[in-house]
Amino acid sequence: MTLGPALEVFKNHTVLLTGSTGALGACLLYKLAVQLPTKKIYVLIRSTPDVALQKWRDLMPDQMESIILSQKLHYIRGDISQPSFGLDNLSMEKLCRDVTLIVNAAADISFASNILEAVRANCLPALELARLASEFSSLKLFVQISTAYVNSFLPDGEVEEKIYEVSDNDPEDVLSSILDSGNSSDTARFFSSYSHAKYLMERLLLERYPTLPLMLLRPTCFGPALRDPYRLYGPDSSLPLNEFGKAFIAMRDPAQIFHATEGSQSGTNVLDEIPVDFIANACLLHAANETYGIVHVGCELYVSRTFDDFIDLYRLVVPPEKQASGVGRYPFLPNGVVLEHCYDHPGSDQCPENELSQILSDGSTSQTAAFAWPCAQAKHLAERLINIRHPDLPVMILRPSFLGPAIQHPYPLYDVNGTSPLSVLGEIYLLDDGGNRFHSLETLAKNGTLNNSSGSSATASVDTQPSSYNYRENRL
Ligand SMILES: NC(=O)c1ccc[n+]([C@@H]2O[C@H](COP(=O)([O-])OP(=O)(O)OC[C@H]3O[C@@H](n4cnc5c(N)ncnc54)[C@H](OP(=O)(O)O)[C@@H]3O)[C@@H](O)[C@H]2O)c1
């Protein structure tokens, strides 16, 4: 891989990474260890190395070996909820001496915590790390992962990369009040205690450590990765819209009530979701450039979906024949190489013209069951009839596999009504309540439509287009 000159600086970086067993942290770890020439990576883990290794293996099984082989990892046992993170003297000495870049991605992202728990998990640890980092002799940059929702108290409109004051209360007084009484009058202005805790963290970091080389990264919602460490990487528990989709379909009551934002009749607010690897890229590119201050990372420029859009998407049940358009032409063939050739059904003694007549009169033929979808039989029949009826026509028959959302044109992630087959399968999977709908995916796999080689749906390989995108624009 060719690195831009900016990223060569990682040759000189010794990184302290927290939260490396989480969604963003593991993606950053992969990039720092495998894609970048990072000198050394101290990974702060609260468990044993064996437990951390198992978490990485679960998150990114095929990338684990290359991470370990990079020989850049050095484990530091520590718990961010403890004073000085519970670090022993030797570890502290190493960090003070070596670390040039800190990326603090550890957090508790639960929205269910009360404000005291949220502050303990998402505000105090960052302040403690900043206190420790003030002693790091080689430090070039401290990257603190925050959230775009620190400003959830603002009305709709443009939000700048700056601090907005939620009230006249002094943040030190607010923190004391929360630690003493477990509450603050400001909390109700945020969408969750979590975002209030992050807001306080930002304000106190900037006020207490004005000379610290600090970058506050404010991502919107994490979405599945576009490329790294692999396509669609990301644990559901850290992808809020996946979790929301699950909660939405788990509601049995047909009357599902959601509260619109102030001034709106429905969910017209944008739920911005950005692939987690884009966030990692933004983080590392800014780190390479030693950006100080506040940085927003969102995806609205690419695809903008409102709450209403998501609800429509979750409710959408696309008829199977619509999902199947253009794919599954030869599900009756065994797994293996499929030539650019028109195959007959096994045992078929019916000529295509007779097959067409029978379908037109009876609505199906004995062969219909051999196909995953009626649409696939229709496409198969069309190919054969074109060849038979018009042998001299200069015709090209294009057989795409599954169409995926666009990479670039007419705009990134273009996907008409969310009907790319894997989007639809994903939606069906999300909509599954343990009942029948998920079985349709298994059935597809058993039929070989997903090119399944072992009979187990988990090993099905699914081809989508376009496959040759070089990801240059978002590649590190
Ligand atoms: N997910 C989102 O949509 C989203 C959106 C905006 C901002 N963010 C922010 O982005 C950052 C990363 O989020 P994420 O979704 O990747 O989080 P995540 O998947 O929940 O991972 C959290 C990480 O923090 C570690 N951790 C938690 N408590 C710890 C403790 N007491 N001591 C040491 N390590 C501890 C966890 O380690 P264990 O494996 O030991 O539990 C894990 O590695 C967070 O600051 C979060 O607030 C997230």
From TrEMBL:
Reactions that this protein is recorded to catalyse: a long-chain fatty acyl-CoA + 2 NADPH + 2 H(+) = a long-chain primary fatty alcohol + 2 NADP(+) + CoA
GO cellular component terms given for this protein: peroxisome
One of the GO biological process terms: long-chain fatty-acyl-CoA metabolic process
Enzyme Commission no: 1.2.1.84
Pfam families: NAD_binding_4 (PF07993)
Keywords: Lipid biosynthesis, Lipid metabolism, NADP, Oxidoreductase
Gene3D superfamilies: NAD(P)-binding Rossmann-like Domain (3.40.50.720)
Keyword DNA repair set for record: no
Keyword NADP: yes
Domain Thioester reductase (TE): residue ranges: 17-282
GO molecular function terms attached to this record: alcohol-forming long-chain fatty acyl-CoA reductase activity; alcohol-forming very long-chain fatty acyl-CoA reductase activity
Region listing for Disordered, in residue ranges: 449-476
General function of this protein: Catalyzes the reduction of fatty acyl-CoA to fatty alcohols.
Family: Belongs to the fatty acyl-CoA reductase family.
Protein name, UniProt field: Fatty acyl-CoA reductase
Species of provenance: Penicillium antarcticum
Lineage, broadest ranks: Eukaryota, Fungi, Dikarya, Ascomycota, Pezizomycotina
